[in-house]
Write a structure and sequence with these properties.
Keywords: ATP-binding, DNA-binding, Membrane, Nucleotide-binding, Transmembrane, Transmembrane helix
Strand content: 5-15%
GO molecular function: ATP binding; ATP-dependent DNA damage sensor activity; mismatched DNA binding
Number of domains: 3
Organism: Pontibacter ummariensis
Distance between the termini: 54 Å
Structural class: alpha/beta
Low-confidence stretches: none
GO biological process, one term: mismatch repair
Protein name: MutS domain V
Mean pLDDT: 87
Length: 605
Amino acid sequence: MVSENRTSLYTARAEALAEQEKKAASKSRLVSWLRVGVFLAGAALAYLFFSNEGLTAGAITVVGFYALFILVLRWHSRLDFAYTQLLLLRRINQQEVERLEGKLQLFDGGTAFIDDHHPYTSDLDIFGRNSLFQLLNRSVTSVGKQKLATWLQVAATPEEVLLRQEAVAELAAPQQLDWLQDLLALPQHYKHDQEQADNFIAWFSDKAFFKTHSLIKVLTFVLPVLTLAAIAAWFYGFSGWIPVAFLLVQFLLAYRFRVERDEYYEKSIGIYEAMRSYTKQLQHIEQHQFSSAKLKRLQGQLLQEGGKASESIHRLANIIDFFSWRLSTLMAFFLNTVLMWDFVWMYRLERWKDKYLARLEGTLEVLAEFEALAGVAAFQHAHPHFAVPQLSERPFEVKAVALGHPLIFSVKPVVNDFEIQGAGKTMVITGSNMSGKTTFLRTVGINMVMALMGAPVFAEKMTVAPAQVYTAMRTADNLAENTSSFYAELKRLRMLLELTETGQAVFYLLDEILKGTNSRDRHLGAMSLIRQLHKRNASGLISTHDLELGAMEQELPESVYNYSFNSDIVGDEIRFDYKLTKGICRSFNASKLMQLMGIEIAKEA
């Protein structure tokens, strides 16, 4: 019912924005035609005056209509931006509906962050197709995506989790929805290439062209003045060879340092769109009032004594914009042969670097945090029935009421209550095929990851103690590494044991361990692993078909617990309830499943 309400809300917003979008498009087209009209009127009047030898009137007309044309052009640019913003906001609301419907394949899966050697991300569908990243991420900028990926890969400290929860709660409030969606829409006006931005920062940090060529610095500002003065003097009868000499000097300097000029331009132009995007986002953040501690601290970092962060980024974007005038075929010769244009903006870039570059990385870090928080907040707004988990100081406490899997989209999702607490505890989960054992392990794991990054969880209530989540589920052979699936699983288990040797709290989720060997070795190995983990700072869940593992509940009472998932066979139909039940599984369906697949099962004598 709650998801239906949110679907209706986002659909209504999208429809309202579509109406505003039509009006904005109509107004933008009207002003576009006005721009054409101003140009044609100015050209006609100027032609009329100049044809009748009204040179002064013609000149005034050209200047006046050019100024008017620029004003109308800027007006149209603002209207066009507003129209695009409405279009993007409509898409954002439509995308929220698509996420609620489980259409995650439409979104970036964060495949660049997939790491098969990570303690849990591959097994818990954190990245990739139909992943948690697709469900949470609303970032457009690469810095925002990277920040969210880091949060999903590394659990935050308890203090940081609480700060994020408070910040997310503020941003997810209904009255903040317009501001939040505006923040998510603004970067979508521009192109983003984080690799170029990173390369620019690394490259520019060591650049000091004018410190090593101090004479060029002087000539950059003296030569254009002398050249223009010499040209003016030539009109008054002075020798024409003087401006020619100055022009020749400028040409030779431009030719001598052509590689440096091109390098400065090519490195900087690659970040122009990103800088414009960052300016808009930062202005949006700087102008807002926040109440939560984390958001106020982040905003404070943008409003330092050196000026607003948006202003420094805007200056960089303007410098790059003026630098790009060199590409104009009509102006290139004049700019670089008379005004030393490239050198001027190279100098401005270096001055910007000396004053602001050290602050740039910190600014991008703040922006990345805001984007990551905004994505989690949008998710929380879309799922108000999800619980904000409580953090526990009791070791390995994981307690949930009505725990479900956030990536299973169903009208009536199956949920389970679950509780475990204390070090050295293992919950052995047995069950028939397809009964839900593996899904339950993933449900516990993915909700723990969400809880420990500061996001809401799919539960009515949930309490979680900080711990390193570790999984061993999707082990497969690797031909490139000449590794069998069994050996791959052993490597995962060895990594688990090495991790527990550090003394760090580890919560493990192991699915059908040692399935690549015979039943006797599997049983002995599983029992030995449970005994070994029992002595370490670790607890967790193990799913298995090995019913004999249930005997460990008697061997290690109050440390090993038996739970199961069961199924019923009614005629030719296998029915599952996907409910976690105490005790060892007593129902089996493998033979029936094989029969349904056409395998004739011989009856025992």
